[in-house]
Amino acid sequence: MKSSAVLRDEIKKKPGALVLGFFEGEREIPASIGKLDAAHQDFFDGLFRAKRFEGKDKQIFFSFLPALKSAQSVFLAGLGKKDQYTLEKFRGVVGRVVKQAAAHHLAALSFDVKSLAPQKASSHDIGRAVSEASLLASFRFDKYKTGAAQKADHDLKNLDLVCDELLEKKEMQAGIKFGRLVGEAVNLARTLSSEPANQMTPEILAARAREAAEDAGLICQVLDRDEIKELKMGGLLGVAQGSSEPPKFIILETPYENPSQKPVVLVGKGITFDSGGISLKPPEGMEKMKYDMSGAASVIATVWLAGKLKLPVKVIGLAPTCENLPSEKPQRPGDIVTISNGKTVEVINTDAEGRLILADGLSYGVNLKPRYLIDIATLTGSCRATFGEYAIGVMGTNRNLLDSLREAGEKSGERTWELPLWDEYKDHVRSDFADLKNVGKGLAGAIIGGKFLEEFTGGVPWAHLDIASTGWFEEHHAYLAKGATGAGVRLLIQFLKDLT
Ligand code: BES
Ligand code: MN
Ligand code: ZN
Question: Which of 173, 213, 371, 471 is most buried, with most CB under 10 Å away?
């Protein structure tokens, strides 16, 4: 699927559909298209009179309209209340239209940008939103379905963004290019997280990281079990202990060497399957724990994207990865492990494994003397219980960083919401026998997870993103779908872009 910005004069009658936006109560054909198809005002009037279409938020009306000059059919997209219309709503409109267009087997869409896009959005933002949302909306993970009939085919090939001036067209085209790479990165993360655990072992994840590195010109290093042992990563080794699949520690780096610039270090949780270990999870929903490597997937995809976009920031991605399984030689509750920074942890619950491997990941990150250290993880059911699927939980030690992440969240459509890391929570993770224990008292689970991680951040500016909330959708969404969402990629790339 390809998006392009086209001048209104360049439009020839296309076999696809013209997409027009209407705010609630708006009844005129958008002025921008009026000249072309003013004769259709009657048709529209009839629709409004019959209340078939009222421009309400989320409303989409489709009709075949062969007499239309610019296309064979038309989508009317409801934009809702004018003062509540945002770029995120616009992405939703694009997503809904693209999904319906696929269902109608349309080959092409022309977006009437003038009536559809928020007034304040720049041409770059508009182009980016359309290519991003359309790529996300057309993502499918159906490689394991056999037989053509089961694979819904995608006929949608061309998306035109209709604009009026050359400068607008140029900027929109640049935005389209940017958004396409973002969409590809998010879909890469979704693919990695959607793969079942028998097809996404730590070794396979490392191989995918190497491929991504090759494609984007990144430096890639994968540490194997012996090297992990040398670095004394007791957290990662302990969790990996129950599985015959060896752990890996993936390191990806953008190549732009500027010695005066400290790197931004991203650390992603890469549990390719979380059974809970000896503290076994109940069977209900356990199959979803294949997405417990979503943090790692987002880190790989984000560094790939930073490379592709040639962002002038040094970015280093770290992904400790292993399986969490019971076996005849697993980690046991009560075991005490030593993290690579020297702190000891009593493992009370083997299902709180993410923080153990992240402790080693963060400790490694601290040694890189980062400007910012950010970890991203499907860390706690508690975060999902708190936010549902509507916000990424954020905690951290640096106001600047937390504020930037909130802003990046607003802009990118990946909302973040902050939880506190007050001193009182520290008492919950003190152990009788080691420096720390890996679970609290069953209260404030998402915060306790963050508070535990803080112990491994060595005083550098750090933030923790808990994506157990938005990393998997059970609910219908305008431009994403049920399943793995690639959470964090759009947020992190916006954050990195705005740093420069
Ligand atoms: N991977 C899970 C967290 C999770 C749960 C992610 C649901 C997505 C959806 C994590 O490893 C885990 O098991 N966390 C425990 C921690 C508890 C034992 C302190 C949890 O949240 O129950
Ligand atoms: Mn777990
Ligand atoms: Zn987990």
Answer: 471
Asked if residue 243 lies in contact with residue 327, where contact means CB atoms within 8 angstroms, the answer is yes
Residue 191's CB: how many other CB atoms inside 10 A? 18
Please give the Cα distance from 237 to 320 (Å, whole number). 10
Cα 316–chain centre separation = 18
Position 215 scores a pLDDT of 98
Least Cα distance to 136 among 191, 183, 94 occurs for: 183
Question: Which residues are known catalytic residues?
Answer: 281, 355
Q: What's the number of domains the chain is made of?
A: 2
Q: Determine the pLDDT at residue 314.
A: 96
Please check whether residue 101 lies inside any domain of the structure: yes
- CB of residue 393 inside a 6 A radius of ligand 1: no
Same domain, 302 and 392: yes
List the domain range (segments joined by +) for residue 350.
Answer: 195-499
Per-residue pLDDT, 150: 60
- Residue 451 CB less than 6 A away from ligand 1: no
The answer, yes or no, to whether any atom of ligand 1 lies below 6 A from the CB of 138, is no
Measured by CA distance, the residue closest to atom 18 of ligand 1 is 352
At 262 the three-state DSSP class reads coil
The answer to whether the CB of 468 is under 6 A from ligand 1 is: yes
Q: How many C-beta neighbours within 10 Å does residue 459 have?
A: 8
Q: Whose CA is nearest to atom 14 of ligand 1?
A: 380
Within this chain, do residues 220 and 79 fall inside the same structural domain, yes or no?
A: no
pLDDT tens across 327-377, in order? 999 999 999 999 999 999 999 999 999 999 999 999 999 999 999 999 999
Residue 40 token pair: 């259709």
Q: Which residues of the chain have pLDDT under 70?
A: 13-14, 34-38, 148-153
- Whole-angstrom CA distances from 144 to 147, 291, 409, 481 are 10, 17, 33, 17
First to last CA, the chain: 30
Cα of 381 vs centre of ligand 1, distance in Å, is: 5
Q: Are residues 223 and 89 in the same domain?
A: no
Which residues are 75's β-sheet partners? 19, 62
Query: How far apart (Å, rounded) are the C-alpha atoms in residues 365 and 376?
Result: 13
pLDDT in tens, 164-186: 999 999 999 999 999 999 999 99
